[in-house]
Specification:
It contains 18 helices and 13 strands. The chain is of the alpha+beta class and 469 residues long. It is globular.
């Protein structure tokens, strides 16, 4: 994640510039007019890699990371370059249709908001909006900053039941963000190569957990919880005469946790094919008949524990008191004591060693756990609990990607891997390779690593990303 210079400096090598000194940063990021600067910078980086190769490989061996480097990351780099080059087709007519719809609906909401306020004002101005909400309409929970009243999402959500203007504002913001981030962002991305395809750029070493990230545009955060967000998936379409095939792991991080912490009851639930959230609810609430509310609460706890949620965070998610949330967490750790032991060990490792590790020995350094500041220290503990799980899940998917690509090339198939969106892989598949690719993907994703917990995937074919999710 760090700048190239920061990394090589840690090996006592200094003869290279910071990237931002060459390319700028933020809005000014781009190629400099003097292209010789770029040539020299690239050459300096190559020289640094050559000079440090031996000592870096020694460090990889010391950290038991040669398998991670040679069998996962290096082959993956070649695959990602193929995925970037191929890109994914976009329905440009649908893009314009969605853009027009979002613009019109946002305009109608803007009129409604002003009508509800009883005055015309700039809805996009936090300062003017704050004055309307807290001075004109006299709504509670005002939180004043140096520039005026805060109108961020957390404040607005508290006000939802006090006035109909709040829901209108939240929807307006959602629609304008979709339009600016995705519709306008995709238009800009399409203009780069002008071939009707989006060619996202994957950053292989950007995140500290080992997950891939993507830019120009970022396809990792396509929203799927709202109908408007799901509609955007219709933009990404199959090539003519073929289909898209999307598959993702089912509850991958929970399965990784069950394996890494050797949680016997959780492993038994996965091995028997039982609904794991219902199984958890039965144990936490000590009942044989689980209600939909109890299952929902158990699901929130299952995933909340992975992300180190506090009783306050869980209480907010479930709309219950912190005291009740605390009871749920205590019952959870009594039900699955191995998870408490595992989480405590990760925190202790971070304190003693300075880092935590994934199954494939990828390290995440967490200096925050030694901070004098309580909040920073608690944040570090949450990272220590989550990083080995999220990082191991990322390693696992990368292993599957490399194995699938090797098999596609060995069999000389026409199918191509197009996208990776978190736990989801998307392929372009000719009709006559449907059965082959289904078998191949299931085989390599479900057996990427030797787990006692079964890894299961869900896959669908369709003409666009909406149909396969």
């Amino acid at each position: 994640k760090d700048d190239f210079k920061v990394i090589v400096t840690s090996f006592d090598y200094h003869d290279v510039a910071y990237d931002e000194d060459i390319y700028g940063k933020g809005a000014k990021y781009g190629l400099p007019e003097d292209f010789e600067l770029v040539r020299k910078h690239v050459a300096d980086k190559a020289r640094a890699i050559y000079a440090l190769r031996k000592s870096m490989l020694e460090k990889n061996r010391e950290y038991e990371q040669m398998s991670l480097l040679e069998q996962i990351e290096i082959p993956l780099a070649g695959l990602l370059s193929k995925m970037e080059f191929t890109g994914i087709a976009v329905d440009q007519n649908k893009l314009e249709e969605i853009g027009e719809d979002l613009t019109q609906r946002a305009s109608e909401l803007e009129t409604l908001i002003c009508d509800l306020a009883g005055s015309t004002f700039n809805v996009n101005s936090p300062k003017q909006l704050g004055e309307v909400l807290f001075e004109q309409l006299q709504l509670p929970y005002q939180k004043k900053t140096k520039t005026g009243y805060s109108t961020d999402a957390s404040v607005l959500k508290q006000l939802s039941s006090f006035h109909p203007i709040i829901d209108a504002i939240l929807e307006y913001r959602s629609l304008t963000k979709l339009n600016s981030t995705y519709v306008e962002g995709l238009r800009a991305a399409l203009s780069i190569k002008n071939d009707g395809r989006i060619h996202t750029i994957y950053r292989q070493a950007q995140t500290q957990t080992g997950r891939l990230s993507s830019v120009e545009p970022n396809l990792q955060n396509i929203p799927i919880k709202t109908e408007e967000g799901k509609e955007l998936r219709k933009l990404f379409v199959a090539d003519q005469g073929g289909l898209l095939y999307s598959c993702d792991y089912s509850q991958i991080e929970l399965r990784v946790l069950a394996e890494m912490a050797d949680v016997k009851a959780l492993k038994e639930a996965f091995q028997s094919g039982e609904d794991v959230h219902s199984a958890t609810a039965k144990k936490i609430f000590k009942t044989d008949q689980v209600t939909s509310k109890e299952r929902r609460q158990a699901k929130a706890i299952n995933f909340g524990i992975i992300y180190g949620k506090t009783s306050w965070g869980l209480a907010e998610d479930l709309q219950i008191s912190p005291k009740k949330a605390d009871e749920f967490i205590i019952n959870y750790f009594e039900t699955y004591p191995e998870i408490k032991t595992f989480m405590d060990q990760q925190i202790q490792d971070a304190i003693d060693l300075g880092y935590v590790s994934t199954l494939k020995h990828r390290r995440r350094y967490i200096p925050e756990v030694r901070s004098n500041n309580y909040q920073t220290r608690e944040f570090g503990k949450r990272m220590a609990m989550n990083a080995p799980i999220q990082g191991s899940a990322a390693d696992l998917l990368k292993i599957a990607m490399v194995a699938i690509q090797e098999e596609i090339e060995r069999r000389q198939l026409k199918s191509k891997m197009l996208l990776q969106i978190h736990d989801e892989l998307v392929f372009s598949v000719p009709l006559d390779e449907k059965d082959l690719i289904t078998e191949l993907v299931h085989q390599h994703m479900e057996h990427a690593v030797d787990f006692s917990v079964p890894l299961t995937i869900e896959g669908e074919f369709g003409l666009n990303l909406y149909e396969v999710k």
